[in-house]
Amino acid sequence: MSLPDNSTVLIVGAGPAGLTAALSLIHHGCRDFVIVDAIVEGQNISRAIAIHSATVEALASINAADVLLSRAIKGKSIRMTSRDSQIFEVKFDPLKKHSAHPYALFVPQNVTELVLVQKLQSFGVQVQRPHRVIGMKQNEQDPHITDVSFEDGQVIKARYIIGADGARSTIRTISGIGFSDPEGKNPSNHLLAQMVVADVTFEPEPVGPLTIEGHLNNTLFSGSVLMLMPFGNRFNDELTRHGKPTTKPIFRVACAVPVENGEPPHSPPKEYVQDLIDTYGPACITSVLSLNSTPVKIDQLIWSTRFRTHSAIADRTFTRLGAAIFLVGDAAHIHSPIGGQGVNLAIRDAIFISEAVTKHIQASAENPDVDDTILQEIAEARHARALEIIGFTKNLLKLASLTYDPYAWWMPFSLASLRDLVLRILGRFDFVQSRIAWGLSGLGRR
């Protein structure tokens, strides 16, 4: 498909961050933009699944939340459990005092992307696919324009570029921006350095409180954690196996794989995922501890993947190479999925940065010599927010990775046992639940 020769704004990447950036530009009055993506079509895998209160508010501020609210599961709580009992439950109800959206939305990322794409299409905007960026250079005639070249030989001249092209961002690499752990540590030096994620169905269908829709469940094991999210039949049309929907309820499973167990396969097979569930999962979904008379086993493996839980952040999220260049989403920062903060930070980055871009466009129309103060300030604010979120998720990761091994010969209890005891006690107090729900919601760190 032919691309225009010129565009005020070029958005590279059509994941949640890029799509939201486009919707934010439209909301704030900018229609002269192009959004491109390197792949032929969006994927049908679920990936990120939690959208917290602050992000719902941000989407509502650009009139992009209504359809998502109608499609998603409104989450009631996040639970921490042992294999056979509850340790702690974070309820979202206390957020009613702070937000019109006192819940987390549980929705597969591909459904989120589909909703955002359809919203864009309602404005007559299409994602241009497949167009892979391979080069950028300052325009020879105008020092405020960048010539962006694509694999198929086309070139777009752009005044602003929003790089939403993922953790291996081409925009970031060509711009010469570094990307590393803010603490400079080896990302593999912790117990939860690698995880496996899968969407599955079970036979027979599991029973018990952990299988009830609206609750995200985390089963703590020594040096590991297994997450279980029941989707029911709500997303069966979008989460397909070989292009065919299933009629059975779908469950999202995510499990940390201890480093000593070796590296997981690239696309873990059903047997591998079943072994993780049997080893680390709650009784209601294991084939060895099942509450049913017939052992519960995976029936269909709809999708699976592996990934590392390292953290990294771009040295800066704003630079100039002729055009003003921003990084958003995974191109700007990545971190542990614990706490479900990644896609939330990406969406909020995109909304706030696109608003600043439109303000700068308007200011430039009145004064061609306007400086970059507006752009620099928002970039520094989002960079600081990303550092804060990385620290927050690292702390959660440390708590989740505690083991039940005795701390020392002179101290016969383990740090994990102490954690569980403290959580069981603190969980009785409403103000503790409120504080944790507030921290996860993002309302204090928009």
Automatic annotation (TrEMBL):
Q: Which SUPFAM superfamilies match?
A: FAD/NAD(P)-binding domain (SSF51905)
Q: Which GO terms describe its molecular function?
A: FAD binding; oxidoreductase activity, acting on paired donors, with incorporation or reduction of molecular oxygen, NAD(P)H as one donor, and incorporation of one atom of oxygen
Record bears the keyword Flavoprotein: yes
Q: What does the record list as coiled-coil region(s)?
A: none
Entry-linked Pfam families: FAD_binding_3 (PF01494)
Query: Which stretches make up the FAD-binding domain?
Result: 8-367
For activity, the cofactor(s) needed are: FAD
* UniProt keywords, alphabetically: FAD, Flavoprotein, Oxidoreductase
Q: Which InterPro entries match?
A: FAD-bd, FAD/NAD-bd_sf, RIFMO-like
- What protein does this entry describe? FAD-binding domain-containing protein
Organism this protein belongs to: Suillus subaureus
